[in-house]
Amino acid sequence: MPRRKGISPVIATVIIVAVTIAVAIAVAFWMTGIVGLFTGFEQLQITAIYDDQNGIRLTVKNTGTSTASITDVFVNNYPISQVNGQLQCDSTTLPTTSITLKPGEEKTCTLTFTKEPEQFKVQPGVSLEIKLHTAGGKDYPKLIVLQAYTADTGGTGTGG
After folding, report:
1. Domain ranges (residues) in the chain
2. What is the pLDDT of residues 5-22, one digit of tens each?
3. pLDDT tens profile 89-107
4. With contact defined as beta carbons under 8 Å apart, do 60 and 47 qualify?
5. Cα separation, 160 vs 157, whole angstroms
6. Which CATH class name applies to 44-145?
7. Which residues contact residue 85 at a Cβ distance below 8 angstroms, ignoring those fewer than 6 apart?
8. How many Å apart are CA 87 and CA 48, to the nearest integer?
9. Which neighbouring-strand residues pair with 139?
10. Are 133 and 73 spatial neighbours (Cβ–Cβ below 8 Å)?
11. Torsion angle (degrees, nearest 10) of CA 78, 84, 89, 91
């Protein structure tokens, strides 16, 4: 009776290792795809801030990978609703409605005060900290020293 021969143990080991590596690579690519879906992040940048006779202008860009929703604005740590203010971006106005920015989107917004806040002065030479607060719980602050905008006179200032 002829003796049957199988593959050598070395070849069998090489095949098992190759299959294991192929499966590990496939699982790694699969997990990377799933992890990428759940690791989106928001990142707002206030790329420009200045004041003119119509208000404080902010240019805001979402440099993150998920949509960011601005839910509140703080001026010197006071919510915008408490300081007689509003933030207008396109046709959306805070504090009435949140402002959304898709990834890569940039918007120019205007912060105005309907009357002089009781908590601080809005006049040339005054520093204001403008802080955007998002639904994700992050704050994005920026400091501005006013040069032209004043709230109590309806936006007519000293120029600048």
Report:
1. 7-39, 44-145
2. 778 889 999 999 999 999
3. 988 888 888 999 999 999 9
4. yes
5. 8
6. mainly beta
7. 73, 75, 111, 112, 113, 114, 117
8. 15
9. 133
10. yes
11. 140
Which of 83, 87, 159, 71 has the alpha carbon at shortest distance from 121? 83
- Position 105, amino acid: E
Question: Exposed, middle or buried by CB within 10 Å (0-12, 13-18, 19+), for 139?
Answer: exposed
Dihedral of the alpha carbons of 28, 32, 35, 37, in degrees to the nearest 10? -140
- Measure Cα distances from 75 to 31, 35, 127 in Å: 43, 37, 10
What single letter denotes the amino acid at residue 80? I
* C-alpha–C-alpha distance, residues 29 and 10, integer Å: 29
Reduced to 3 states (helix: H, G, I; strand: E, B; else coil), residue 57 is strand
Q: What is the pTM of this model?
A: 0.72
Please report where in the chains the tokens 């602050």 appear, as a residue. 141
Amino acid at 123: Q
Residue 12: which H helix or E strand, with range? helix 9-38
